[in-house]
Every structure is written in C-alpha cells, then in structure tokens.
Amino acid sequence: MLLFTMSLGVTFFSLIAPKDKIQSKILLFFAWLLLAFNFTNPDYTNYEVQYLHTTIRDLKFSISSEWLFSLLIICSKRIGFSYQQFFAVLGLVYVVMLDLATTRLTKYKNIVLILHFFIILPLSIVQIRSSLGMVIVFWGLTILFDDSIETKKAILYFILLVLVASLIHQASLSFLIIIFARILKKDKCIVVSLIGAGLLYFTTSPLMTLLQQYFASAKFAMWATRGFQTYNYSYAFVYAIVTILLYGACSFIFKIDLEKKCNFGLLDGFQKTVLLLVVFLPMILRKQEWQRIFRLDILIAFVLLTWLLSVKAVFWKKAVGYILIIIALILTFYITAFKSTSGNTTYFNAIYRAVFENNYIETFLE
Asked: How far is CA 17 from the centre of its chain?
C-alpha cells in the first residue's frame, strides 16, 4: 500500500509542525487526492448509477427531495463531466469546508486534519453526501457559537446552512436541534436531550407514519421508520459512553483553563452540542447509519484535543482530559471500523483499506 505509506510520511511531517500552514495545505491536498481518485468503494456504483440516470425531470423542489444534489449532478453533466470528475469536485468542496472550519477553530490545525485523515476521511469518501452535509454543519458551528455575532443572526445563518446541507442529504436536518445550544443553558439542554431521546425511543406508530410521509427518499424513510434492531444496542451504548466522555472532557477544560486560553463560547457550545445529539441515540437502534450524526461529535473531539495543548496547566492535570478524549476516539473507531459492516465485510476492510488500495494514484505507483 504505497499510498498509505506516503500518507504516513505526510502526516508525520504535519505532526511535528502542527501549526505550519504549508503542511496544512499538503494534508488537505492529500485528502482531496484520496477523494478525487478513488474508483471503487461500497457506495461508488450506486452513486455512479444515480449520476448517469438523473435528469431534469427528476428535480422536485421540496425540502424533502435532496434536490440540490440532483441539481449539481445535472449541472455537472451539462458541463460534460464524467462521474469521476463530478466526485472530484464534491471532494474539493468537502476539503474547502473542512479547511474553513478548522482554521477558525484551532491554531493546531494539522492535528485535527491528521486525525480526520485516518478516522473520518475514509468514511467520507464512501458516504460523500452525508459527509458533505456534516462538514457544512461543522463550519456552521463556528458561526452559531461566535459571540461576536448577534444571536438571531447566528441562528439564521446556521439554519440556512443546515437547510443547504439537508438538500444534499436529508439526515442533516437533524442538526437543527443544535440551535438550542445557542439559546438555552446547559441544564435545559440536558432536559431537551432526555425528553427528545425519550420521545424517539417510546414513540408509537403515528409519529413514524408522519416521518414516512414527509421523507420522499425511500432509503431515508427506512432510516426513520424501521423497527428497533437488537444488534444495534451495542452501537447506541458506545455512543452514549462517548457522549459522557466528551461532556466530561469539556467540563475538565473549563476547570483547568484558568487563563482562558480556549474560546469559552465555543467550548460551551460544543459541550451543549454533544448533549443535544443524545436525542438521536434511539435512532441508532433503528438503523446503524445514524452513527453518521455522531461523527460531528468526533470532529469536536479532535478540536478539544488541540485546545488542551493550549491550556497552561501541569501535564498530569491535562492528562485526564487527554485520556477522556482518546478513549472516546478509540471506542468510536472500534465500533465503526470493526463492528460496522458493508455486506459481510467490516468497514475496516470494505472502507478503510479500500480507499487507499482502490485509487488511481496507487495503481499508477505500482
């Protein structure tokens, strides 16, 4: 796996220069290469077929139809792009949005990009639509929790970004709940998350029927209306633990950052976001694909890890925060890579290995 070896080299130099802007651009470029030149993954054929068969007649301008993605396909085909070229453009949008968000969030940007490169990027290459939605929302958090922006304006901007993301993948609408993180205190966010999770867990068929009617996408309707699956309880349990760990890490940073090196507005917003996403834990019981919502938590964890580097405190105090976040990342990677499957193959083989092996650059180097 020559491409993987090259990736290790690039990330190593970025690790020893975590603030270097040139290394940041190299990392982002390498991430784009993995996206743009991938030629086989579990969802590749489905997306290619959708690209080839989507026409102007398929456009349905409703918030539940993901029409923006269809419109992008139609425009791309009018230009004369192949599916591979279209996928490369989507990859470019993805890395640009990631660049914008990480630049605003941390000075140790390269550490976030390295962790993203190995933990999230392979999944993003396969699940490009939901990943585009997630990274748009991730950037939106930098606006929503910006204290210099008036609350009403910040919320309006965030709603617009979530709506854009939902027109690419409907699941992004779920992120609207994060609005409460800007307007409610922490204790009230806990109440909202518990009530919301309880409603989604104990809800009866009328609500599920309503969701079925609303979501035009048959595939996403199944995400929302499928019955509980016993084998999905382990996923929900792991993400509940991850939520506790990240909530604890945020509280710990508040406690030890006496000089306020971190942005407390963002830190407070991130902690509330982690709480509010608990609402969707019951949905993982219906379909393991709801794990994608919690990847936003993982991006937040990357940022928290770099913020700890900025905190001026003795190492043993900071070590507690590091341990909480690292355990959260290990649990997430384990449940995703080795417990999630595509067909009968674990994500580690079907996705993590595949994105490095099934790449035109890898083929060329061989």
From this structure: 25
